[in-house]
C-alpha cells in the first residue's frame, strides 16, 4: 500500500516524476518524547538532515515518507523542511480540526528537513524511503 501511494502521487501531473524501483529498506518506527517523559530528560527531536547518504542502498533513496500515527496525542514535533532559505512546517498536531492520523508526508530524499522538539506527549511516525537509480 505504501508503494502504491508513493507511485500514485509521484506519477501525477503535479508529482515528482522520479523513476522508482521499489522499497529496498524496511520502514522505521520513530518515537519522540517530550523531555518530561524521556528517561534522560532529553527533548524528542531530530535535527536537520537529508536522507540520501553514502553506501549502495542509501544512495538510491529518491523519495522519503513519514506517516503520522498519532498527531492528536502530542504538541510540537512538527515536520519542517527547508525550501530555499525558508523553513516550511507541516502542521501535524492538534493545531488543525482535521484528523491527520495516517497522513503520509512525501518529499525528495535530498531535501533538508527535521522534526521540531516535542513539548508534550509522545510522537510516533513510520518513516521510510522509495528507491531508484541514483540521481548522480
TrEMBL record:
PROSITE patterns: FE2OG_OXY (PS51471)
One Pfam family here: 2OG-FeII_Oxy_3
Domain Fe2OG dioxygenase residues, every copy: 26-132
Annotated protein name in UniProt: Fe2OG dioxygenase domain-containing protein
Species per Swiss-Prot/TrEMBL record: marine metagenome
